[in-house]
Amino acid sequence: MEIRQIKDNEKALVQDLRDYSFTSVYKGEKLEDFQYWLENSHVLGGFIEGELAGQVFIFPLNMTLRNQNHAMGGIGFVATDPIFRNRGVMKQLMIASLVQMRENKQVISVLAPYSVSFYRYFGWELFNDILHFEIQEKQFPQTARNQDVVKRMSFQKVDSTILKEVQEFHNRYAEKTEGCMKRTSAWWSRIIKRQLDGHIAVFYESNRVAGYIRYDIRDLCFTIHDYYSENYSVEEAIWRYVFSHASSIDKVRGVVSIEQRFMLSFAEPQIKQQRKQETMLRIVDVYAFFTQLTLPKDISFYIQVLDTFAPWNEGVFHIHKGSVEKVIIKPPTRILTISIQHLASLVAGYETIEQLLYRQCVQVDGEIISEINQLFPKSNCFFNEYF
């Protein structure tokens, strides 16, 4: 088997394998978008006897984690030709993707798993709960009249000024929100091309953007795909806007951060809700990741990382006086021993050290638990992107 980057004259093979492996064939705007990312991502192929047996895209993305925006490799369009199944194609591609992301200085990686257990094996772990909700017509609240400042933009007719304002707001929001991704113009182009019947409603306070929703209306359903607000008054304005469509819809669906409690303001707050885990995180380069963090100067302990598929992560790291150092000798005390996937869960704040200890996922000296919690307090990431 040969694992390498796809050549220009092989890109049609990548598109054919994607179309065969997934449920739809890309045409029109979606095909144009796919071809853009085929050109601008790092695409690895696995070849057997000269034939493309499998492929992995590495998107050049980013994500905010522990108050720092990091370069992130988004894994997408993972596919193996059924002819070559059970020959280790995807295993070799996943290992190669880790090497490539490290070379790209992408210190973390995110993917949407078709199988959680498969990607856990390679070091990714769930880190992000999101809330899917549905509000039936009989639950629509009565909203007070108010002179909200709202602008609407259709993706069929993009207003460049509004889109720029939304992009700038989103990126300011993403810089201070755990798990959030700053969106480039190319990523907004991708969103628009994949949702041509979509709209954006933008909410203003004091002549500046203070929130927005991205949505579409189909089959009497108002579906919210993005929901971002910087304060409660904007949330109220959002729901006044949504329910102003009551005469033409019979339900509202959407996805929001698990921390959102907008329904508590409704007279009937017991709407349908479902908590889902749809994305997984991996630390690609432990040392590089820690050097990018602002580490407390009053903590000192060791982390022994176990990582089968990224040998550069194997070893002991000393967190000490605001810095990190990889050491040769394993100390007898003040040490946390943790696998790479559980480190991702801990770093993201998805699980605390106490929860991991309870599930027997780590070994840790009790005297450093408070310092670990100081470094990685409980948090709720919100990652709402699709590759």
Automatic annotation (TrEMBL):
Presence of keyword Acyltransferase: yes
Origin species: Kurthia gibsonii
EC numbers, comma separated: 2.3.1.-
Swiss-Prot/TrEMBL keywords: Acyltransferase, Transferase
Family matches, as Pfam families: Acetyltransf_17 (PF17668), Acetyltransf_9 (PF13527), SCP2_2 (PF13530)
Gene3D superfamilies in the record: 3.40.630.30, SCP2 sterol-binding domain (3.30.1050.10)
InterPro entries: Acetyltransf_17, Acetyltransferase_Eis, Acyl_CoA_acyltransferase, Eis_dom, GNAT_dom, SCP2_sterol-bd_dom_sf
Protein name: GNAT family N-acetyltransferase
Family annotation (SUPFAM superfamilies): Acyl-CoA N-acyltransferases (Nat), SCP-like
Residues in N-acetyltransferase domain copies: 1-156
Annotated signal sequence range: none
Gene Ontology MF terms: acyltransferase activity
Entry keyword Acyltransferase: yes
